[in-house]
Specification:
Helices cover 34% and strands 28% of the residues. It is an alpha+beta fold and 134 residues long. It has a single domain, classed as Aminopeptidase, CATH 3.40.630. The chain has a six-stranded mixed beta sheet, with helices on both faces. Helix 3 links the parallel strand 4 and strand 5. Helix 1 runs antiparallel to helix 2. The chain starts with a strand and ends in a 7-residue tail after the last strand.
């Protein structure tokens, strides 16, 4: 398996992967809209040796009320690929100067050490540090 950044040549295949392989047209439409409005700051693909898409993670910029930068991670549902994709995203984002990630709660998010900042948070967060960089 190889993890790499999304390239323009991947867009049609990635859209088909979300729509037909995963049968998630709503997510495909959301990704397309985010792409068209320039809101995706990082998009990584997990591919096999033949270039077939195995997993995907998209990172969108989000501003908080106190004007600190956060990243919202959105990934494919393949549990086996979530951790490698998250690790690569964390490393890349740390290198780009990001310091905090925001994600919807899930078993994978808990495994990746995301947690709510406050008991009533609907989002989970992870502070990026040099230790997450590989």
């Amino acid at each position: 398996m190889m993890i790499r950044t999304e390239a323009p040549a991947d867009l049609v295949r990635l859209d088909g992967w979300w729509r037909e392989t995963l049968m998630r047209p709503v997510q495909a439409d959301q990704l397309q809209q985010l792409r068209e409005t320039g809101q995706i700051s990082l998009s990584l693909l997990a591919t096999d040796d033949m270039g077939e898409i195995l997993g995907h993670i998209a990172v969108t910029d989000a501003q908080t009320a106190n004007n600190t930068q956060e990243i919202t991670l959105w990934h494919s549902p393949d549990a086996n690929l979530v951790m490698p994709l998250l690790d690569e995203a964390e490393s890349t984002l740390f290198e780009l100067g990001y310091s905090l990630l925001k994600i919807a709660p899930s078993d994978a998010a808990e495994q990746a050490e995301f947690a709510p900042l406050y008991p009533d948070d609907i989002w989970w967060y992870k502070q990026l540090t040099a230790a997450t960089s590989t």
